Amino acid sequence: MAESPAGLGTGRASVSTVLDFAWTAGEFTATEVMAGTSLTRSTAIDAIDTLVGATVLRELPNARAAGSYRSGRPARRFRLADDLGVVIGVDAGDTHLAVSVADPLDRTVVHHRTDLDPTQTAHARRTTILDRMAHALAEAGATRDDVLAICVGVAAPVNRDGVSPPHPDGFWERTNPGLAAALADWAPIVEVKNDAQLAAIAEGSAGEAIGCRDYVALLASERFGGGVVVDGHVLHGAHGGVGEGVVFDHIIGVGSAFGLSHTLQAQVRAAFDSGEIDRDSAIGRLADADRIDPRLVLTAAASGDADALLATSRVGATLARVVGVLGSMYDPARVIVCGAVAESIEPVLAAAREVLPTQLHLPAPEILASTLGAEVVSIGAVATARRAARELAVPRLAERRLAARA
Question: What residues contact residue 181 under an 8 Å CB cut-off, 6+ apart?
């Protein structure tokens, strides 16, 4: 974030310190504030009282009233107010839309996921997204006045103003149909970000990259896109294009940015057409259908089916080339395969791990499957909106309330 809790002003540094402490403290006393910060008792108490007066902190019943008082003077107890507002996280993928309304701390109030028509016009798509957000907000019993921050993930590069560059086929303009401008009056803070970058934030906060400072979150179900973290920082680029998957159109042995679901289906069909997979086998019968369900192939590979393992080994070789490019460019310690496909992708990862060391000169990164499933971008969007609420929106709210009382 560009700013910090110093939004409360240089004369209120102690108030900012206590507010920052309160976000992760749960219930706390002034003594615990002193232990967790460098504030003296009198300064801590003054800052707490200021935030209680601004209704950003709530004073709880003391130990005597709560029935746990033993002896001595009961300590005053506080916690962050539970009615500060809500945040909204949105995953606006090419073919799906997920909307989450959450409190600023840890509870999701409403979450809906639905399919999107990929042939929608930009205008129709924008209308759909705004309508679903309004519906979720109403279901949560909140209004726009309650929204502290919004974060939307889109399948496109996004610059720091939330705008996507032009795409030769208009794809990016359609997947990000002017959302930053359309949402500008919805909340004090609106962020539109690339979906893979939000996947990286999710993995770092709740997934396989906790404690790791160098990793790539590879969205891989429908199209390849990487959220890149180096030295603990999510890389962005001038247009938000770091990790954009179009590079794989030009990599021999990969050939396109289409993800693992597409690649697995293509490999099954190719092996079927060449006669390597028998028409009467279990995988052969799948290949003879209009659409091959990748999950069935992956499940069969996990149980040892030879035809399925043939296909997953070839997809694993493709994935190894993808990871090899990412490894050579960014030198990550881990590459985490994300998206709905991650749940059953282990047979492909096993094959990729065998090939990967030949694909780069640096030590090969560890390849892991995400545990966050299809909601990885939603999780990253909510986490980003919560961070904006903590660092910007709530300090500004406290400042306004204190100014109104002055």
Answer: none
